[in-house]
Amino acid sequence: MKRKFKLFATVASLCLCFALMAFGVYAAANVTYKATGTVSFEVSNVFVKAETAVYKAKDAAGKKVADPASQAYDDTAYKTTDTRSSLVDNNWADLAPYEVGELKFNEAGSFKIVVTLTNLSEQKDITVTSHAPTGTQLVNATITEDSANASVSNIEKGNKTVTLTYYVALTDVAKVSSGSWTIIIELNQAA
What we know:
The protein is mostly beta strands. The protein has one helix spanning 2-29; strands spanning 34-44, 48-56, 79-85, 87-88, 91-92, 98-104, 110-119, 126-130, 134-139, 141-145, 154-155, 161-170, 178-189. The strands form three sheets. Strands 1, 6, 8, 9, 11 and 13 form a six-stranded mixed beta sheet that branches. It starts with a helix and ends with a strand.
């Protein structure tokens, strides 16, 4: 009887060891890479339309991306394109933030966020201030602003548009990435 119990205990222990090993292999193979984000607009007495779209990099799923600006991106939006306007019933209104939501680096090593701003006023230009993106406990991922954004300072009146571009990229594929980030775009009447 004692021998049967020892045999049963040994077999049960081996099964448990294999189960734990299989779970460990599964967990290592399915590392979670994701970050969530928001594009916020600080609008002061201007009529503007903001269209925001997110595109994922081609052929970079789950890979570290050294220079996200040099990546090729899909032509179709990864996240639903969102359009918001501060012109409501011929009156000025705040622009609600665009919640980008979760970006999964297992699907792409980097993402491009494109914000197209249109001045709906026929009277005044709009000054544009794009604040440096901030990350809150952004682990193993970065958010950067395209260098071309520095040249954008205003939107001329009469339905003229400007485009701002940002990149969110994975920096370490061996570790879990997480956290959140915020992009703040300030829009005011030009003097």
